[in-house]
Amino acid sequence: MDYIKRLNESIHYIREKSNLVPSIGLILGSGLGSLGDKIDDPFIIPYKEIPNFPTPTVEGHKGQLIIGQLGGKNVIAMQGRFHYYEGYSLEQVVFPVRVMIGLGIKNLIVTNAAGGVDENFSPGDFMIIKDHINFTGQNPLIGKNIDELGPRFVDMTNAYDKELIALAKRVGKKIELPLHEGVYMWFTGPTYETPSEIRMARILGASAVGMSTVPEVIIANHQGVKVLGISCITNMAAGILDQPLKHEEVVRISHMVKDKLEQLIIGILSEM
Ligand code: HPA
C-alpha cells in the first residue's frame, strides 16, 4: 500500500477513537516516559493496536500513544519511541511523528537521554538543543519525496525553534532550573561512543551525544512543525571520567531528575 494510504489509515484509526485534536506532540525519551502519566483525561492507544505502526521489540516496555490535556493544552505523547539501532528502518522510526502531524500537531517537544561532551556539564543537567549534527550518514528523507507532506530539500537553519527555546529558558528561570544550551550529535548506537569519537565530537562542535531525536526532528521540519528539543545529560560521554558507561546508570539518572523535566515541560506547555 502506498505511504500516504498507510499514514491515513493510522490517522483515521486514532481519530475514530478520540476526537481531541492535539496541537502539541511530545516524544518522551528513555526513563522520561512518566510525564505521560500526568496527562489529564488520558486516552491511551498501545502502538500494537494501531494499523501500520511499527511493533515494539522490547516486551514490557511501554509503547503507547496518550492523548489528553497537559498544561492546559491538547497534547499527544509517545510513551516509548522507536530507535534506529533496534533495527527499524528510518521510515518506521519516523512513522509515528508523521501520524502525530496528521492528527494536527503544530509543535513537537522531543526529549532524550544524552551523554555530556561539554566538560562543564554534569550528569543530571538539562540541555536545550539549539542545533544538531547528523553524524550517521542516514536520513529519513532519503528516497522519493512525498510532495504532499513537504519539500524535497528541507531548510534546517532553524530546525529548533528560536521562540520555543526562549520560552523554555524563561520557564527554566521561573522554576529555578538551570538549563544549558548546546548541540546534539546523533550516532546510530547501539554501542556507546569511543573516547576518540567523543574528542572528535567535541572538536566538531557537539555538546552532547545520543542515539535518537534527529530523525524525528528532520520529519517535523519537513512538514513545517516547530521543534523544541531537551536532552537529559545522564552521563559524561566516554573517556571523560575514568569509568565505563552503563545503561543502568543512564536510566538511574534520568529517573532521578525526571520530576524537574516534567515541571519544565508542563510550565512550557502552559505558556505556549
Ligand atoms: N552516548 C550515546 N547515547 C547516550 C549516551 C551516551 O553517552 N547517554 C545516554 N544516551
Quick synopsis:
The chain is α/β, with parallel strands linked by helices and about 270 residues long.
Bound molecules: hypoxanthine
CATH class category label: Alpha Beta
In the CATH hierarchy, the architecture is: 3-Layer(aba) Sandwich
Number of contiguous helices = 6
Strand-residue fraction? 15-25%
- Average pLDDT, rounded to a whole number, is 95
Apparent shape: globular
Estimated structural class? alpha/beta
Instruction: Bin the helical content.
Output: 25-40%
Query: Could you state the CATH homologous superfamily?
Result: Nucleoside phosphorylase domain
Helix and strand run: HEEEEHEEHEHEHEH
Q: What count of domains describes the coordinates?
A: 1
Summary tags:
five-stranded mixed barrel; binds hypoxanthine; alpha/beta; about 270 residues
List the topology elements:
Blueprint: H1 3-17, E1 24-28, E2 40-46, E3 64-70, E4 73-79, H2 90-103, E5 107-116, E6 126-134, H3 162-174, E7 180-186, H4 195-204, E8 208-210, H5 214-222, E9 226-236, H6 247-270
Parallel strand pairs: 1-4, 1-5, 5-9, 6-7, 7-8
Antiparallel strand pairs: 2-3, 3-4, 5-8, 6-9
Helix pairs in contact: 1-2, 2-5, 3-6
Provide structural commentary.
The chain is α/β, with parallel strands linked by helices. It has one domain: Rossmann fold, CATH 3.40.50. 31% of the residues lie in helices and 24% in strands. A hairpin with a 2-residue loop joins strand 3 and strand 4. Helix 1 packs across helix 2, helix 2 crosses helix 5 and helix 3 packs across helix 6. It starts with a helix and ends with a helix. The mean pLDDT is 95. It binds hypoxanthine. Hypoxanthine (HPA) binds next to strand 5, strand 8 and strand 9.
